[in-house]
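2024-03-11 09:14:02 DEBUG pipeline.ingest accepted 1 chain
2024-03-11 09:14:02 DEBUG pipeline.ingest length=238
2024-03-11 09:14:03 DEBUG pipeline.predict start
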Amino acid sequence: MTEFIDRATLEGSLPELIDDTELFVRKNTRAAAKVIDFERINIPEYPYAAIREAVANAVAHRDYSFSSAVVRVMIFDDRVEVESPGRLPKGVDIKHLEGRHVPRNETIAQLLYDIGYIEKFGTGIRRMREEMRAHGLQEPLFREDGEFFKVTFYGPGEKILDLAKPQRGVDLKEMGLNDRQIEALRLMINEKQIFTNRRYRNVFKVTNKTAATDLNFLVKKGMAQVKGRGRSVEYLAK
């Protein structure tokens, strides 16, 4: 909490704050990729829908009389925390959050519901839990911390590639990649290998023209990137 890689103070309407917070989280969390069978799987570190739901709930249900405090979203190496001023409203407790709808700010909650920024009243907690489970992560932790309510989303750590299983990927065959290109992409992404034209020819036993065509097609489709120039050109995963 004493060193920041990035930080932002957001201002604007409530919908703008929710949108801008999601963009900030996307920018400051990791993404990975993996080739499984004939699909490229793009893997975000967190399910953004769950974090967005927490932020929407925070601005809708925070204690606005606590004017000296703000909603904070904090991104750590292993977790994301959404902190909202104010304890739970009367009639709600930590053990019975799901399905309860006791709005502290009914007008704000109704507005966000009307414009589609929150789902049916009382379903937010369930949606966050379902999104995290579907992403292969543990359910979020809900707790009161002094005069604040906090939601903690624990990330995958170094096991981000294990999240590939529940994700729907891009069908590489449908994109027009042949078997050589799919295998080359698998080696680039999964095993961090780098190809040159010569290495591609040697691995797949093809001509110089075929190697160049295959590799340039991967670049054109946004699957690979070029590094260097001339004879030192290398191709690596994008």
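2024-03-11 09:14:41 DEBUG pipeline.report The radius of gyration is 23 Å.
2024-03-11 09:14:41 DEBUG pipeline.predict end
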